[in-house]
Structure formats: C-alpha cells, structure tokens
Amino acid sequence: MLHYPHIDPIALQVGPVAIRWYGLAYVAGFVSAYFFLKRVLIDSLSLSSDDVLDYFSYAVVGVIFGGRFGYVLFYDFLYFMEYPGSIFYFWQGGMSYHGGAIGAMIGTVLYARRKGVSAWRLLDLLGISSTFGLFFGRLANFVNGELYGRVTSFEWGMVFPGGGDLPRHPSQLYEAFFEGGVLFFLLFLGLKYKELREGQLFGLYAFGYGFFRFFIEYTREPDPHLGFVFASFSMGQVLCACMGVSGLIIFFVNRKPRK
Questions:
Q1: Could you read off the pLDDT of 14-39 as tens digits, one per residue?
Q2: Cα 82 to chain center, whole Å?
Q3: Is 144 contained in some domain?
Q4: For labeling, which of 34, 43, 45, 97 is most exposed (least CB within 10 Å)?
C-alpha cells in the first residue's frame, strides 16, 4: 500500500497571486498542442503561422466554454439551474472533457468554413493534438488528489486524502498513460504510416479515447453526487460509450473517397 505524496497544488505563489499546477497543466497542454499543430498544419494545409494561431484560438475558446457547459449539462444540471449565475464561476472548477471536445469540434468546423479548408483534416489533427492536454490534465488531477479510483487490494493502491483509510487505484495515472501517451502513439502511427482518408484519424481518436476511458472508469470512483447513472455504469462510461460508437461510425463513413 502506498501513501499519496501530498504534493502542494500551488506551484508558485507571489503575494496573493497563486499559480496552481492545474493551471500550468492547461498551459502545457495548449502549448504542446499548438506547436504540434503548427508543424503539421503548415505542411498539410499550407496554412501560415498566423493562420495556425487563428485556428488555435477557435479551438481553445471551444474547449473552455464547451468544457464548462458540458459539466453543467452532464454532471450537475439541477444545481446550476438553481444557481445559474455560478455557471460562469470558472475559477471554482468543474470541466467536462466530453463537453470540451464538442466545443473544440464546433470551433474547428467554424474555422474551416471561414478559411475554406477541409474540416475533416482539421478534426484529424485536433484529435491527436488533444492527447497532450489529456496527459498533463490527468497528472494535475493526481497532484490535486482528486478523481481518485475505487478501493483496491493491488500493491500500488494508494491512500488519498479525502478518500478514507483504504488504498485506491491511482486512476488519474492510468488515464494519463493510456489516454495521453498510448493514444498519441497509436494516432501518430496512423498519421505517419497509414493511408487514412480525411476524417478517419479523428474517428480512431474518438473510438480510442472512448475505449480506454470506458474500461479505466471501472477503476475510478464515480462522482459522489451522481453515482451510477445507468445500471452499473458511471456518467463517464455512458459518455465514452457514445463517443466510441460515434468514432467507429465516423471512421467507416470516411472510408470511401468523396466526390
């Protein structure tokens, strides 16, 4: 049995200004995704550096607002309907990955239409670049001691603050490894060496994320205010099942060349 290392969630504090690891994780994810997109988009779609930065602003706004409204809709709808003003209290936390993904997709389609470029191609690259944010974000969840796993008897079970005296799965690290590292590696192989048509890589991303997280959720403690929302499935599993099926549909729909 391991004990949580009690990492200070504040990375740096200067007077009243505190910089948290969670905020730095968002920055690291966005910066890594930007440089990855910049390198690939300039070559594949003949976009300039200014175009890439312009597109990235669309995607980031989509992630932030989509993530927040996704959390409101999927995880605590009744509370926010009672206190609607708190929807905009971003500093209090509460973001949904699935909502952020939908927001980024909307931003991508809007930008593609404005520039007259392939939305599917942009979505392909959006999917693989989002794995950077997944990796750093889950590490930040571990630093905060949040979103921990269910009770386990495994040797690497860890006692988390707020999780009682029993060891639990460090499910944040599972997600960082599979949803961030392994998924990026698989998608990069598809991008580099496979003759995939536009949209198929995005389909693989949606399926891969849904697949990995669906099964990792069996080790993760459900949200206490929701519990299991359908049979023995958590909200995350329900959303991931929908995402995985959607990914398969997108992959097979895009098999044939378009007229």
A1: 888 888 888 899 899 989 999 998 88
A2: 28
A3: no
A4: 43
